[in-house]
Amino acid sequence: MQQLNDWQLETERLFLRRVTLDDADLMLAVWNDPAFVRNVGDRGVRTTEEAHEAMQAGALKLYEDYGYGPYSMELKSDGSKIGICGLFRRENLEDPDIGFAVLPDFCSKGYAGEAAFAVLAHARDDLGIRKLVAIVSPGNGPSIGLIEKLGLAFERMITMPGDDEAISLYSATLAQE
User: Fold this and answer.
1) Could you read off the pLDDT of 96-129 as tens digits, one per residue?
2) Could you give the CA distance from residue 167 to residue 152 in angstroms, rounded to a whole number?
3) What's the rounded Cα separation, in Å, for the pair 141 and 143?
4) Which fold has domain 2-125?
5) Distance between CA 54 and CA 111 in Å, rounded?
6) Interatomic CA distance for residues 127 and 106, integer angstroms
7) CA–CA distances in Å: residue 16 to residues 2, 119, 122
8) Tens of pLDDT along 60-103?
9) 136-140-144 Cα angle (round to 5)
10) What local confidence, expressed as pLDDT, does residue 177 receive?
11) N-terminal to C-terminal alpha carbon distance within the chain
């Protein structure tokens, strides 16, 4: 992984860059992907205007408050926007959490793993984050597999504010390299 600057990372096949309001189409596609709705939840975002509002309250605020947030995953080969991967900060969690979502046409090709390993290295080496967590629906086998490959281990079941169903919390202490 090569860090091009504080807002863009590069892997073998991907450019990862901070999402901007110009990525509303990507975020709409992610938030309305049936797998995202099933495994993460329905954000109720259906229009570009709603996407802009959600991004200003979410991703753009994360960058402003913490210096990190989600990255757009773009193929080097043709510039296609294929999903997001990044660091998030939730009020009820003590540590940043890593999250990822890949659009259906690009699933099962290793892109999420490639991006997630780059984001984890960036969190550890550039941002100095010492503990990273991940939250995942217990039935989401592919995401659990990737979270475990990243070195995170199951910690406990938690219930997020406003949710009824418990989800799995994974964590890892990040050693300095």
Assistant:
1) 999 999 999 999 999 999 999 999 999 999 999 9
2) 15
3) 6
4) Aminopeptidase (3.40.630)
5) 25
6) 28
7) 10, 9, 11
8) 999 999 999 999 999 999 999 999 999 999 989 999 999 999 99
9) 65
10) 59
11) 14
> For 43, which DSSP code?
-
Q: How many CB atoms lie within 10 A of CB 134?
A: 26
The string over 47-72, giving b where at least 16 C-beta atoms fall within 10 Å of a residue's C-beta and e elsewhere, is eeebbeebbeebbbebbeeeebbbbb
**Residue 16 to residue 36: CA distance in whole angstroms:** 20
Q: Please tell me the distance from the alpha carbon of residue 78 to that of residue 72, in angstroms, as a whole number.
A: 14
Phi, psi of 34 (to 5 degrees): -55, -35
Q: How many CB atoms lie within 10 A of CB 110?
A: 13
Helices (H) and strands (E) in the chain, counts: 6, 9
pLDDT in tens, 153-171: 999 999 988 888 899 999 9
**What would you report as the CA-atom Rg of the chain, rounded to the nearest whole angstrom?**
15
Place of tokens 């995170």: 152
Confidence of residue 175 (pLDDT cuts 50, 70, 90): confident
- Hunting for tokens 């979270």 — which residue is that? 147
